[in-house]
Design goal:
The chain is an alpha/beta fold. Helices cover 38% and strands 21% of the residues. Strand 3, helix 3 and strand 4 form a beta-alpha-beta unit. Helix 6 crosses helix 7 and helix 8 runs antiparallel to helix 9. The longest helix has 22 residues. Bound molecules: adenosine monophosphate.
């Protein structure tokens, strides 16, 4: 396994590999790797000749009062996990390498990026799509792997790849959870034991939504209302949003029908967590 820090060197390696007929899978991450990331890596290893894991805590997707500085960066642990998993290359550029002086170009997916998490994190998805476009150009992947955990992000990236004709197949993989139901996240490391226990309420609320919809409830407000009551039983929980939206346009549905995304974001102490489930009714 090699760690590459320059865009030019990464492009040279990937161009050469493609010319030799090798397929390339890219797994974009911000590091602090856990089993959720490893599941994406495994999928890439299975489908491709070469797997590149990018590790980059992307400054432009964090708001001014968010956790960019604090975000965990366990560099050698991440390298060991990648090596153990069988990754071929880690692409770990510096912020200066990705955004040199004079940088002026952003990719913005309209509408999809301003709802749900985009409403509470203005500019977040513009930062995400910009960095992913740059990672696609640096690593020249045939396939790129994203987690359903960040469902809105995956939908936005699929839109971007289509709209901008990136020759990349965007794969979206299932959410990996702890036994308790809590979705794995690098930000879970911020949680104390008791906040972590409280945070389990998110996946329980999503299970409740699935159950209600299976029982025939079609009024989204009835479902989100019951979810809110359940989430509010956790002392530390502060709901940011609970929404039931169409998976294509991320617009709130008036009646639960077809493929819907039930998405939730809530604060537990100073940590904002998200979770979701896709339902076909
Ligand atoms: P991050 O490092 O948090 O930016 O995540 C990198 C990728 O891993 C994103 O595509 C995430 O959706 C995905 N991911 C993070 N947590 C999970 C999880 N629990 N299950 C599946 N994928 C995940």
């Amino acid at each position: 396994m090699r760690v590459i820090r320059s865009v030019k060197q990464m492009q040279d390696i990937c161009r050469k590999a493609r010319r030799a007929g090798s397929s390339i899978g890219l797994v974009p991450t911000m590091g602090a790797l856990h089993e959720g990331h490893i599941s994406l890596i495994r999928a890439s290893l299975k489908d491709n000749d070469i797997t590149v894991v990018s590790i980059f805590v992307n400054p432009i997707q964090f708001g001014p009062s968010e956790d960019f500085k604090q975000y965990p960066r366990p560099v050698s642990q991440d390298e060991a996990l990648c090596r153990e998993a069988g990754v071929d290359f880690i692409f770990r550029p510096s912020a200066g390498e990705m955004y040199p002086a004079g940088f002026k170009t952003y990719v913005d997916v309209l509408e999809l990026g301003s709802v749900l998490c985009g409403a509470s994190r203005p500019g977040h998805f513009r930062g995400v799509t910009t960095v992913v476009a740059k990672l696609f150009n640096a690593c020249l992947p045939d396939r790129a792997y994203f987690g359903r955990k960040d469902a809105q992000q995956a939908i936005i990236i699929q839109r971007m790849a289509k709209d901008l004709n990136f020759p990349v197949s965007v794969k979206v993989m299932p959410i990996v959870r702890e036994k308790s139901g809590l979705a794995l996240s690098s930000r879970n490391t911020y949680l104390s034991q008791s906040l972590k226990r409280d945070a389990q309420v998110l996946s329980r609320a999503l299970c409740l939504a699935r159950k209600l919809i299976r029982q025939g409830v079609r009024d989204p407000e009835r479902v989100t209302g019951k979810m809110a009551s359940l989430i509010n039983t956790a002392k530390s929980a502060k709901i940011d949003y609970i929404s039931i939206v169409s998976t294509e346009h991320l617009k709130p549905v008036r009646v639960i029908r077809g493929s819907c995304l039930v998405a939730v974001a809530a604060w537990f102490g100073g940590t904002r967590l998200i979770d979701n489930t896709v339902i076909s009714a």
